[in-house]
Amino acid sequence: MSCLPGDCLLMIFAHFEDDECTLYACVLVNRLWCLSAIKLLWRNPFLFVRPANGLLIELDQLCSTNGKFMNTLMECLIHNQKIEHEEDSPAGHKNQQLFDGITHELSRPTFNYVQFIRHLDLVDLGSAIVYWVEYNFSSKFGRSIEEERTRDAIIASLLLRVTRVNHKESIIKGLTNRICQLLVQQITKLDVLTMNRQISVDIDESLENLQENILFDNIADGFLSITTCPEANTCFSHLVELEWIVFVSKESWTTTGFHEMSKYCHNLQKMVLDMNDIMPPSAPPELMAFITSQKSLLEFELLNCDIKSAHIALGLKSQSKSLTRLTFVCVNVLRSEYISDVVHLANLEELTFINGSLVNQETWPLSFVHFPRLVKYKLYDLDPPVISVNQNVAIASSSCSMLTSIIYTCMDFPVGSNADSFLDTVGRRCKSLNHFEIDAVFTALQPLISIFSLPNLESINLNTAWADIVDIERLLTSGQISPKLRKLVLEGPWKFTAEALETFFTNLISPLDNFVLTESECLEGNHLEIILKYMSSPSQRFHISKYRETDMEIQKNRDSLTYIVKDIWSASYIKNTLLPVIRYCKDLTYFKCEAEVGSITSIMSVLYSSPKLETLIIKRKEFSANVDLMFQMQLLCNLNHLELHGKWKFTPLALDTFLAKSKPPLDTLEITRSECFSDVHLQVVLCRLRGIIKRFKVNTSIILSEEVQNMAKDIIENFEYSQSFKEENILASHL
What domain of life does the UniProt record list for this protein's source (predicted)? Predict the structure, then answer.
């Protein structure tokens, strides 16, 4: 590896471009490795200073991380910037002397990091500016004298060309504009420019130096000015991907921005425009010119706008030789002819409509039969709901031969006859289809039977939640099933007998990998027995529920089983539905059960039949039951994780017997809402599991002594205790 040239190292390290730790480890090997890793770390630099999706980070940590990063970026920008002046003018000499004095306080970075930037996200930049200013000026962050000199030099250098900085808003605006200008000047080859999220940086009250409105109004101004910088034609001439949001308060940019970028930005392959429900009358012609100016546009996505003219469709038509992916999200079209030119996109491979409407309720002009190379077709919640199929076109067309995925979801306006026509065309024309998903009302089964028999179909999802009970007995017993079918999802009030279900399973060429039956109203114990009989393999998964998932739910994921039955069901129902589990699920390692009536005997039967069980979770809300027998019998010898939630009763002796027999010993134990767990029970746990148990959580109505609690905290690394209250005590306190 040490002999490999830099280009090879860069190709190898590219596999870790999202792995900050690995790249930083490569930095420490030698200078060549360091340079290759630094190029990737700075390709999209804000990726590593923003919080990952769903990850909560302390505000001070965000400010510190972004502040240090921005200081490095600013030092690099300032050392590289050019002082524009006339050599012989007094003003020019004065500016040069002033600039030299300022930059003397700044250390020169090891590398010219800015030249490595290929992806710039303006929202991430705006967030970083906010945290950087807070980090440099808030009294919460201690700074050495040298750090304060560096800060002052950076700010002074940036504001050297900014006028009228008499208040905070102007300073922020001036800083942002100058930073954007320097980035455009010094990034020689930008590939991706994005603004892929709304400006929603969480500005905590503890930020002393900035307010949210300052961030939005002034940093947004800096964003928009980036396209009009003199060096923009160099920086953006290589741009291949653009994601842009139009701001409500910056409506004028919609026209001027498209106009400016169409002059120098001609190599885009992907364009994503969120119009934010703003489309001035002058914008569509400029947007058409911008789209038309591209040499080879591959992907186009338009969000949140009303189409009131044919300009956008005409622009897309100009890209008919290259465009392969088209997406409309929350786009309302006033008339069908305003998008009808899209049918000329003969090379389109993926077409998506999400939450759109045709305002005058005409027939949608776009159908999958118009696109001979279409591979994926997705319609979600359209109004009117169905893009009708012109049968004359469908019969004459050679299209649909490459279509592999169709997703059609009709949320608010289910129309049976139109859906049947749609299904009929799919069944007759789409012979390469391998994934089909539909949510609509059906009036005929024959089109569905045709789709089930498609030779390459691997996955099908049928949802008819809008309909009354739909009998699919004939569908399941038709015998016309794709030999490649691996996943079947049935959501809604489908009706069929257990015999029909068994006929379906026996007619399968290969067993299903995944079976989902939800919101069913016909599911009984004999249905479950058939499902378990044919879906018992460790590699198979199923998820079934009855009556809209509120009363009964059973889910099997490989060797784990979750069984939930609400309290309205009788003990006999619980017994009948657990019997198939006992019969067919011999290799369970995980079992979770939530049931109320007479369930302990049935649960013990499952434990008898599951010798490999490692995790057991039992929940019971209303009724108490004694589990001494379960603890005393050798049913849980391999268990290492046990949770008992509810009013289960057991003596310290029974608990001691169970813990003594457990091999391997438990490493996790949770007991909540207990009305029997006492100091003696806790002492048994500490005695048997001392030095072994890793986590113990107890919630009981009995107050545990502080002495025993402290003993538990010393022995168990992760110990939680809380007190619950009996319902009768709560009622008495209210009375």
Answer: Eukaryota
